[in-house]
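Obj.: predict assembly geometry.
Materials: sequence records (below).
Method: joint structure prediction, all chains together.
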Amino acid sequence: MKKKIIYVLLVALLAIATLSSLALGAFFIPLREVLLNTVQKFGVCSDLPVDELYSGIIDLVRWPRTLLGILVGAALGISGAAIQSIFRNPLAEPGLIGVSAGASLVAASIIAFETVMFATLGQFLGHYLLAVGAFAGAGVATWLVYRISLYEGKPHIGTMLLAGVAINALAGSLTGLVSFLSDEQQLRSITFWMLGSLGGATWDSVWTLFPFVVAALVGLPMMAKSLNAFALGEQEAQQLGQRPNRIKMLVIVLATMAVGAAVSVSGIIGFVGLLVPHAVRMLGGADNRYVMPASALLGALILTLADLIARTIAMPSEIPIGVVTALLGTPLFLYILIRDKKKIIV
Amino acid sequence: MLVAENLTYTIKKHTILKGINFVIQPGEMLALLGANGAGKSTLIKMLNAEQIPSDGKVLFFGSDLKSYSPVSLAKMRATMAQHHHVSADFTVAEIVMMGRYPYYTHNPKEEDLIVVRETMCLCGVDHLEQRSILSLSGGEKQRVHLARVLAQLWKQPNCLLLLDEPISAMDIRFQHQTLALARALADRGWMVVAVLHDINLAAQYADRLLLMKNGRKLMDGTPCEVINSRNIYTIFGIDVEVVTHPETLHTYIVPKMVHVNGLSFGMI
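Observations (raw C-alpha cells):
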C-alpha cells in the first residue's frame, strides 16, 4: 500500500516535472500550448490549433532534452540499485566498476587531441565521435575490471571492488595528464563534459540511448528476486536455486551498457546512481521488486528537475547539471538520512 | 537417501577432508561433532553442493548431487549457514519469504504466504514480522534464518536439512525448541544433518553422531556407541565422565579436566 502511494507520487511528480520542463526555459511557452502539443504528439487528435513557433521549439528542443533527462536519470537510478545489490555494498555505484572513469579518459583525450589523433575517425563519426568514444571507454574499463575479478572463471566481488578502485585511479591520473597537456579552451570543455550536460540533446541522441536504457529497465527488474537473495550472500542465493555468477554478469552488462550510453550523451552526472536507490529504500524498504522501478522513476524525476534548474537559473547561460544534482539532491538525501538515522544504524 | 562416498577436499595441497563415507536414511538425524577446524562446515558445503569435492561424490537419492539443477535442488535441500550477514535492510517477513523463491517467479502465491506464516510461528519470530532484520539480536536472527530455511522445504517430500551450528546464539529454551523441531521433522521423513558443539544436546536429539578429527571420520554411531571418555579425549582433549540419565537413559558427559599446553586444570 505504502509502495503504491510512492509509485503514484513519483509518476505524478515526474509528469509535472516533464510538463514544466517543456514549458519553461529561455523562451516561455504557455502551459496550454504544451498540453495541446502533447495531446497531439500522442495522436489523440491531430487537428488542434497549435502555434507553429511554440510547437517548433517544443518538438525540436524541449522534447528531446526532457526525454534525454528522463532516460539518463532512469538509467543511472536503476543501475545504481542493481550494482549496490550485487556488490552487497551501500557505497557501490556504476562509477565504481570503471564506467565513468573510462568514459572520461576517452572523452578528455578526444577533446584534447581530436585534431592530432582522431582526425580520420572524426571524419567518419562526425559529432558522434565524443559519444562513441566515451561509450567505448566505459566498456573497455568495465571489461578490464570484470576480467581482473575473475577467479576460477567466476567474478569475485571483493576483487572487483578493488580492481574498480585501481582502474578508476589509473584512468583518473591519465585524464589528469591529458588535462595538463590541453590548452585553456580544451580544459574548459573537458571540465564541462565531466560535470555533465543535457545541452547536446537531439532526437538522434534520444533514439540512440533509448534501446540501452530500455534493456536495463526491462532486464534488471526481472532479476529483482535474485538480487534480493544476494543480500543474504552469494552462497545463500545459490542455495535458494539462483545462479549468482550469471546474475552478476548480466547486471554488469546491462548496467554498463545503460550507464555507458547515458554518460556518452550527457557526460558524468554524479550523485544520482549512488544516492537515489538509498532514498528509495529509506522511503519504502529494500525489496528490489520495488527498489528498481522506483529508483528509475526517482532518477528520472531528479534529473528532469535538475536540468530544468540548470538551464533556467542563470538564463541565458546554463550551469552544469552535475553541479545541480549534487546541490539539489544532497540536502534532500541528508534530510531523509537524519530523519531515519536510527533505523539505519541499528 | 544420501550417500557420501570417499569425500575428499583439498585446497592448495592442504587436505581439509579425507575419505569420508557415510549414509543417511530418510527419518534420520545425524549430528556432526568435532573440534574447531575439523572440517565440519566443509563437509556441509560438500553435502549442499556449494563446493565440489576434489575426490569422491555425494549421491542424493541415487543420483550424483552435481546432476541436479539449482532450482530442483533448492526444493529438496536447504542449508542454515553458520554466519549470516544480511547486506540490506529487509524485514523479517521478507527474509523468510526468500525461502519461497524457488517456488514462484515474481509474486508469491497464497500458499507461499501461508508457509511463511507457519514457519515464522514455529520459530517464534511471528511477532517480529515487520521488524528490520538488522535490528534483531543474534539469537533472533538465527531463528529468522531457521524459519527461512524451513520455509524453503516446507511440505516437500524427500528433504535434506543441513544445519551448521544452528543454535549457537540461542537461549536454552530456543536451543531445545529448535532441536526438538529438527527431531520432529526427521521423524516425518526428512534427513537432518546438524553441526553441534554441545555433546549433551547432540546425544539427546540425534539418532547418530559422526565424530570428526582433522578432516577424517573417527566414528559414526548411536550416541551410546560413540560417546565414551576415550573418544571425547581423542577429539577435544578433555577428560569427561560419561553418565547415563537414570530415567531417560540419554548419555551425558560431565567435564572433569582440561589440558592446556601440558598444564591440567580441574573443573570441579
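Conclusions so far: The two ends of chain B are 44 Å apart (CA to CA).
To do: check interface contacts against the pulldown list.
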